[in-house]
Design goal:
By secondary structure, the protein is of the alpha/beta class. The protein has 11 helices and 8 strands. Helix 8 packs antiparallel against helix 9. The longest helix has 21 residues. The protein is globular, with a radius of gyration of 19 Å.
Length: 304
């Protein structure tokens, strides 16, 4: 493919915010690119100074203040629709607690203009800039596997327009957490995958240590376990019978583990998760069919 002038590339940076005042300046300040870049923010009803910081310091940023907390997926879907309507070449999903290192964005785009078979992502580092983010390290085997990946978390996704139009937006069954794993399953179904560009770096300024204390964070465990169960149900790479089997197998395995570890207070959460998924099985089936059959699934756009 002939070389493309990055100055002619149109990209929309999509940022969803919620009480992100301690992150947002580092996030927006890090966006350095020679491309034709638009930055769009949807705020999920923050009750801190996030929106005032953006309005006062970044007049070039387009900001929409939602009257309700739409969650990660639904809010991002509105920005994905804007990218399609504006005929962008790429859309970049950027977490409010993530920020680029140097010319990370242009390095990614320079690779992406030669291939529209992947969602591209940089190396995800912890805030000390020395260690890999825990989640990123797990999915990339400590950064040793970077090509044709089945998953990279959505803190930093560069999505070519061809992929966006084919796969669509996030599944509305997921409010927060799990929507990127579901999207990855649909990406695989459509014949695409992820690729990490080693020379591009991003800081994901998050701390996952609080999730290890299950007693204190029982409600977080309950919600995340439900989400993990739900994404087994929604995996369109398997038929519904296999999805049901995989879900029940995971729940039973978790129950056995909790019995062995004498974590009795979590067993009810395991059972509730499978019940909640089975209760909404009709909706799950409908969303699965939409994801399989329709381009730009879950987005209100008309493809040209």
């Amino acid at each position: 493919m002939s070389k493309v002038d990055l100055k002619q590339v149109n990209i929309l940076i999509a940022i969803v915010t919620y009480n992100g005042e301690k992150f947002i300046e580092s996030c927006i300040d890090s966006i350095q690119t020679v491309t034709k870049c638009q930055i769009h923010v949807i705020d999920n009803q923050s009750n801190d100074n996030t929106t005032s910081i953006i309005k006062n310091k970044y007049p070039h940023v387009f900001i929409t203040e939602s009257k309700e907390n739409l969650g990660f997926g639904k809010a991002n879907n509105l920005l994905l629709e804007k990218a399609i309507d504006a005929e962008m070449d790429f859309v970049f999903l950027l977490n409010q607690d993530a920020y680029f290192v140097g010319d990370c964005l242009d390095l990614l785009i320079n690779e992406a203009i030669n291939s529209d078979e992947y969602i591209f992502s940089p190396m995800h580092l912890k805030k000390d800039r020395c260690r890999l983010d825990e989640g990123f390290a797990m999915y990339t085997k400590d950064g040793l596997m970077l090509d044709n990946l089945s998953f990279v978390n959505a803190a930093a996704w560069l999505i070519p327009m061809r992929i966006l139009k084919a796969v669509g937006g996030f599944n509305p069954l997921f409010f927060h957490y799990g929507e990127d794993r579901d999207y990855a399953n649909r990406l695989k179904y459509k014949g695409f995958s992820f690729q990490v560009i080693k020379d591009a770096q991003l800081i994901h300024n998050r701390d996952l240590s609080h999730l290890k204390n299950l007693t204190v964070k029982k409600h977080q465990y309950e919600y995340r376990f439900y989400i993990n169960t739900l994404r087994y149900f929604t995996d369109i790479n398997n038929n519904m019978a296999k999805c049901l089997f995989n879900s029940i197998y995971m729940v039973v395995r978790e129950i056995i583990s909790n019995i062995y570890l004498k974590r009795w207070f979590l067993i009810r959460s395991n059972l509730n998760a499978i019940w909640k998924c089975c209760y909404q099985i009709r909706s799950i089936y409908q969303k699965r069919e939409t994801a399989k059959k329709w381009p730009s699934a879950f987005l209100n756009v008309t493809l040209k």
